[in-house]
Amino acid sequence: MRLVLVGPPGAGKGTQAEFIAAHFAVPKISTGDIFRANVAAGTPLGVEARRFMDSGQLVPDEVTINMVRDRLAEPDAADGFLLDGFPRTVPQAIAHDKLLADLGVGLDVVLELIVDDDEVIRRLSGRWTCRGCGKIWHIEFDPPTHDGVCDRCGSQLYQRDDDKAETVAERLKVYVRDTAPLIIFYGAQGKLVGIDATGPVEDVTVRAIDALRSYGG
Ligand SMILES: [Zn+2]
């Protein structure tokens, strides 16, 4: 199965990607992992990406797409893959379709994890991270016993910039602007399947697997 996972920040994409990829026995490929692997191995693309990241700029699509191309050409992705975090925009999706066509394959399905805006804000802006051990607590879903203190190691908790309410609102805006058109794009291709991604993690996984079953293994 060749699958792309889309959904707003805080939809639980990373977690669901792990479970879904394991269930269908395909590699989970995330752009974060590809970036890190290329940078660590010092590949020409990694060196180029590094240059942009070090200067605080976005890595250009061309570099990202070439990294994805290299990754999808690896043997473990020959019979399928789950992409998490790419494509993120319609131009990337068009480039991705083209690179798959070059490889002689096509995308089977795009799974959208549906979570409404209020829920995204509730999930993300409630996260507090431990300065000591890095554990992430949630004021509503997984609160520490004492406010602002990690149960596990006793260190102070802080809110990462990414999790602050104003940043969350901005990330959502970017998602709606850049990624929501992607949903229309794949819908028009007849490849989009959406599931309710609220409720317990295990329930969402069951819904995802059910929705994808007809696309084979
Ligand atoms: Zn801690």
Protein described:
The protein is α/β, with parallel strands linked by helices. It has eight helices and eight strands, in the order E-H-E-H-H-H-E-H-E-H-E-E-E-H-E-H. It has helices spanning 13-24, 31-41, 44-54, 61-72, 90-102, 117-125, 165-188, 201-212, and strands spanning 2-6, 28-30, 81-84, 109-114, 127-130, 136-138, 157-158, 192-196. The chain has a five-stranded parallel β-sheet, with helices on both faces. A three-stranded antiparallel β-sheet has the order 6-5-7. Strand 5 and strand 6 (136-138) form a beta hairpin. The longest helix has 24 residues, at 165-188. The model has no long low-confidence stretch (mean pLDDT 93). Zinc ion binds next to loops.
Which overall shape is indicated by the principal axes computed on the Cα atoms?
A: globular
* Order of SSEs: EHEHHHEHEHEEEHEH
Question: Largest beta sheet, briefly?
Answer: 5 strands, parallel
Beta-strand share of residues: 5-15%
Number of strands: 8
In the predicted model, the low-confidence regions spanning at least 5 consecutive residues are none
Mean pLDDT: 93
Bound molecules: zinc ion
> Given the helix and strand composition, which structural class is it?
alpha/beta
Question: Major sheet: order of its strands?
Answer: 2-3-1-4-8
> What is the helix fraction of residues, given as a range?
40-55%
Radius of gyration: 18 Å
Distance between the termini: 6 Å
Tally of DSSP helical segments: 8
